[in-house]
Amino acid sequence: MKDVVISGYSETPFSRARVDKGEPRLTAEEYYAWALELLLQNTGLEKKDLKGQGVGVIGSEWPHSEIWSAEVVQNLGLEPKFLVRADHGGANAAALLVQGAFAIHAGFVEHFLLIGADAPLSITAPGSRTWRYEEDYMKPFGTMGPNSMIAMVMRRYMHQHNAKPEHFGKISITQRQHASLNPNAYLKKPLTMEEYLNSRLISDPLRLLDICIWVNGGFALLLSRRDRAKEITDKPVSILGFGEWHNPEAENQLKDITTTGIKIAAEQAYKMAGKRPSDMKFFQPYDDYTVAVLMQLEEAGFCSKGEGGRFIEQTDISHRGDLPVNTSGGQLSAGQAGMAGGFLHIVEAVRQIRGEAGERQVKDANIGLVTALGGLAFGGTFIHNYAIILGGE
Amino acid sequence: MTGYAKPLPEITDLTKPLWEASKRGELVIQKCKKCSHMQWYPRHSCVNCASREMEWIKVSGKGRVYSFTIARQVIGNSPEFQKDIPFVVAEIDLEEGVRLYSNVVGVNPDDVKIGMQVEVTFEECTPEISLPKFKPAKT
Ligand SMILES: [Zn+2]
């Protein structure tokens, strides 16, 4: 990869946190901030020059300082197009370098920032535990993880775009109908609107049936070089396009929480694939909550912003309909296998394209869109946003 | 004030000025010395320009409810919140242009509305920590 070079570097002074010797006792978070500031000084770049580029962060071996990529970009105000984390111990930097080089070589980004920090000698220092923004500025007020945050998204969405509970209900009911045709799904019993509306309020206006159901489960996918794939299958599924965006509107302290970064990710994916929303035979949107599906229908271009409710009302989103949505039942009904939950949508897309979806098979399903969301944002929606277009031969 | 059993923020070198101000009944947020950007939650650097030179500024404590939820069930937080149910968790947009998570208190949860004007009020939880909460603004 002669087209990729290292163009800058930084390094903070080191410390063993011997306060008695006048050494600083800083946390990993502080070292991340310091390393970035130094890199900008050394290269003459401004933070905005890194917007839409690549970022790689490292996983620490210390559970107390298990910094996630979402946390690092949110703390530092970075807004990358491409974001990876290495969990390769001593080979963290090398692993990131290789991934970054691939991304640049492929033309996906022009710069890739590798940033790594750890503070094993500050384990007991105040603030050394991570997720400070949730521990200090959310939980003391009784926020209850994603349910509270998405309930606020839902309330705001209903306020801003006149959505009704029945709109969310139709998503829940249709996905359950799909699950009833999926032998692997956890919840298979069909639902009525009445059952949806009577399901109990967990975090008003969020109902039980707006929320995905946690399950145990596993998935695998295999990627191969096209010529080698012929030895394995006569039904290869192509990655026609993809896009991603992280920590959208990084600097904005008053984000519109009825939006996600899927709009940016999907535009990249459509462009790479040379396709339009109307070309998609199905949509497998990430569905931790019903409102996430509604927002993504808009942002993936199936209807305009704020029209999601009306679109749901007028569109058959079943596997036989105009735009089949989450044909596996999704995480709402098939189940969310913990942190592996996002495999569900990709596996289902592959199944549909290969024509192996049984009773819920979508007709002529030779191309479709999958999205993924991750990492709830402070005062926003999601840090990580992905769109992938898959297609058959 | 003994026996406060709900989660509390940790006081660190970074956040000491914040919690000391709260104790005095003042709400402060971070402002970047280099580019004047204001931000909440507190961080070690400016999300706008990445400078580590941040200062604390006192704000009005006035704002509006951007969105809210009424907690009906305790999941994923201290069981101590059970006795408060139903209670309002809200996103409050301050006049100065930052968004906080907090509670809207001193009003029936069913009467809280998006856009409602609120002002800060502090709940003394322990001698060290007073939490900024919000009540309907005096008209
Ligand atoms: Zn700044």
UniProtKB/TrEMBL annotation, chain A:
Keywords: Isoprene biosynthesis. Pfam families: Thiolase_C_1. One of its GO terms (molecular function) is acyltransferase activity, transferring groups other than amino-acyl groups. The keyword Isomerase does not apply. Signal peptide: none annotated. The keyword Transmembrane does not apply. GO terms for biological process: isoprenoid biosynthetic process. Residues 244-377 form the Thiolase C-terminal domain. This is Thiolase family protein. It comes from Caldiarchaeum subterraneum.
UniProtKB/TrEMBL annotation, chain B:
It comes from the Archaea. InterPro entries: ChsH2_C, ChsH2_Znr, NA-bd_OB-fold, Thioester_dehydratase-like. Gene3D superfamilies: 6.10.30.10. Residues 56-123 form the ChsH2 C-terminal OB-fold domain. SUPFAM superfamilies: Nucleic acid-binding proteins. Residues 19-55 form the ChsH2 rubredoxin-like zinc ribbon domain. PANTHER family: BLR3430 PROTEIN. This is Zn-ribbon domain-containing OB-fold protein. It comes from Caldiarchaeum subterraneum.
